[in-house]
Structure formats: C-alpha cells, structure tokens
Amino acid sequence: MAPAFGGRNPLGGLGDIGKLMKQAQKMQEDMLAAQEQLEAARVEAASGGGAVKATVNGKGKLVSIEVSPDAVDPDDVEMLQDLIVTAVREAQDRAEAEAEETMKGIAGAAGLPGGLF
Predict the structure, then answer these.
(1) Are 49 and 86 in contact (CB under 8 A)?
(2) Total domain count for the chain?
(3) First-residue to last-residue Cα distance in the chain
(4) Most buried by CB count within 10 Å: which residue of 23, 29, 74, 84?
(5) This prediction's pTM
(6) Structural domain boundaries enclosing 44
(7) Does 102 reside within a domain?
(8) Which residues fall within 8 angstroms of residue 117, CB to CB, at 6 or more apart?
(9) In a domain, 4, yes or no
(10) Distance between CA atoms of 102 and 37, rounded to whole angstroms?
(11) Cα(47)–Cα(53) distance, rounded to whole angstroms?
C-alpha cells in the first residue's frame, strides 16, 4: 500500500504544529508584556520654549499637562491653546514612534514583517 499523501506532509510547509503553537503563545505573551510596558511608559514634549509640557503614556493617551504661569496671558488665550495642542500632538507622535519600534521588535523576534503592526 502506498504511503498516504504520497509520503508528503499533508500540512505542507507548516512544519511542526507544536512548535508553531509555542511560537504563537510566546508572541502573545510578548505582546501582552509590550502593551503593559506601553501603558506604563511616559513620553513628554514641550512647546513655547518649555512654557507648556504634555505627558502621554506609550499608547498616546494624555497623562498630564504643565503650563508655566508665564504662558498664561488673559489677553491671548488662543496662543496658550495652540501651545497646548502642539505639545500634546508632539508627545503623541513620539509615543506612536516608540510603540512602533516596540512592536517591530516583537514582530522581528517572531519572524514576521515589521510593517504588520
């Protein structure tokens, strides 16, 4: 009697399923650890020469805003608003870049393309 599937592995290039499952579990654990790390991370950015400082977590969520008393001009509230928006956006952009690098590291360790995240 001829071997089943012509002697070939019916799963083709998938290889050892147990090994794949372990890799998937490790990647899931790494992803959870990275998410916790991002939640705990703090990224800061300032605008107006340091008059306004925004802090976000690694996921880009706003944690705090610091405004120098010198930046508060009741006759120019719009400028203060612009400084706040600028500082927050810069902090969020930095956090996003750091998160991308973290995820690329995990994807690379798992043998996945970095652009996946």
Answers:
(1) no
(2) 1
(3) 48
(4) 84
(5) 0.70
(6) 21-110
(7) yes
(8) 100, 103, 104, 106, 107
(9) no
(10) 9
(11) 7
